[in-house]
Amino acid sequence: MSLHIPPVHVPPDGGEPVHLVGDTYTTLLKATQTNGELSLVEAIMPADAGPPPHTHHGESETFIVMDGQLVITAGDETYEVEAGGVVYVPKGVRHSFRNLSRTKPARIYFLYAPGGMDAMFSEIGTPGVRGQVGPALSEADVKAMAAVADKYGFTFD
User: Smallest Cα–Cα separation from 42: which of 124, 105, 136?
Assistant: First the structure.
């Protein structure tokens, strides 16, 4: 059965990068390109950085560590994950993550299923450059995320 959607190719310099909460997020696959099945976002996270605990209520999130090392806490489990490692967090599970390096950024792919979380990044982020560390975390970014939390189905716990 065909979904009548075309294949998608994103070159190494492609995607839609934005700066948000000190990170650079590049949307590689939008939900609108995958019939809502998934979204794929690349994140460049500064050294010793990461979000507070939060929960996605509408989608599961898979972390694919491409460069660097993270500590990921999901529910009652904590994982130290290096490049090549993967962690799956089902929807409804409280989680947080942090770049363990004190000097180097980490590069992570976030796979959301079903898709849709990708729209949040483009809605509230500012134009960025793929692969580059963004400006430092700002209070405006934190307020913007809080303002769209209900719309995108996540809570800060």
Answer: 105
Contact indicator for 48, 98 with CB cutoff of 8 Å: yes
Asked whether 64 and 108 are in contact (CB, 8 A), the reply is yes
Confidence at residue 70, expressed as pLDDT on a 0 to 100 scale: 98
CA angle (69, 21, 59) in 5-degree steps: 75
What six digits make up the tokens of 69? Answer: 């090392």
Per-residue model confidence (pLDDT) at position 3: 63
Helices (H), ranges, the chain: 118-124, 139-152
Q: 10-residue block means of pLDDT along the chain (157 residues)? A: 82 96 96 97 97 96 98 98 98 98 97 97 96 91 94 95
**Gap between the Cα atoms of 99 and 49, Å rounded:** 5
Q: From residue 111, give the alpha-carbon distance in Å to each of 28, 116, 138.
A: 10, 11, 25
Structure tokens given for 51: 């979000």
